[in-house]
Amino acid sequence: MKRNSRLSLALHTLSHMAGDPDRLRTSADIADHAGTNPVVVRRVLGRLREAGLLSSEKGHSGGWKLAKPPNEITLADVYLALGENLIASAEGDDDISDCSIEHALHRRVSGVMREVEQSLISRLGETTIAEVRGA
Amino acid sequence: MKRNSRLSLALHTLSHMAGDPDRLRTSADIADHAGTNPVVVRRVLGRLREAGLLSSEKGHSGGWKLAKPPNEITLADVYLALGENLIASAEGDDDISDCSIEHALHRRVSGVMREVEQSLISRLGETTIAEVRGA
DNA sequence: GACGAATGCAACTGCTATTGTTACGTAAGC
DNA sequence: GCTTACGTAACAATAGCAGTTGCATTCGTC
């Protein structure tokens, strides 16, 4: 694994789950399949649980499974659940400069960024994890 | 400055230059205005010179100025000159896995990413650095 | 009730990318 | 020749992320 693997790991795992929604999978199994670590899996999948996409159960014969039917989970849901702007804000956060040009630029660029991010989310929303398998 | 400041620095500097295209500015002046370091400025502006957007002159009374009229330089030109994908590739580079679902996912997601990146470039191409000043 | 299996979570270690900094070479003008 | 400025290499400092270990907690089974 390398960079920005959170989204990759999440989508990969959910897509597999879509093929057998009732099966419980342990983070160890998932980590093994994804070539990573159980703790990493729990970290990422925990975000998806908070967003209501997954449910997890502790204890013996515990594990993870989908909290919703696979055709009701879109790629956008996963993207948003992870809360990671792929569209980097592209501007040093809150640089309160007194430069008017800086402000004009920031308005212009961040406007475009918001547009593009919405476009990304919209496009991702067109595909459910159930559809990915057959794609 | 913080993160992803290259694009920010480049756009900011070019926008200022657009207001007085013939004036030579030293990297020290630019760095001072942008709150960073002359070497950083030269690093970033060097990419823009390679792309033909800026010219630099050494020696006494040297410095930087626009290589083209400001209304012929779009935000997309700057973005492309820096060669940094704001749209992170979102998939661990070349993970040659034998998992068919992984492949299907990768095709789908990277297809959307390419679309969105094109859309970003297209939108940035609609604005020149000359227009930013009045925006 | 004890044991084993699983998540939940905190802390720590690398690894990588980026920025900032220093230093030195080179070219242009005075 | 001296000053000024770019060009570049090398290094330190920082931040984010994946990976790892350890331990508490919870649930099922014996």
What is the strand and helix layout of this fold?
The structure is a homodimer of 135-residue chains.
Chain A: H1 5-18, H2 27-34, H3 38-50, E1 54-57, E2 63-66, H4 75-82, H5 100-124, H6 129-132
Antiparallel strand pairs in A: 1-2
Helix pairs in contact in A: 1-3, 1-4, 2-3, 4-5
The structure holds a DNA duplex (30 and 30 nucleotides).
- What is the mean predicted local confidence, pLDDT of chain A? 91
Most extensive interface: A-B, 46 and 46 residues
Alpha-beta content class of chain A: mainly alpha
- Rg of chain A (C-alpha, Å): 18 Å
Question: Treating each run of at least 4 consecutive H or I residues as one helix, how many helices of chain A?
Answer: 6
Query: Can you write the helix and strand succession of chain A as a string?
Result: HHHEEHHH
Helix content of chain A: 40-55%
Low confidence ranges of chain A:
none
Number of strands of chain A: 2
Main sheet of chain A: which strands, in order across?
1-2
Largest sheet of chain A: 2 strands, antiparallel
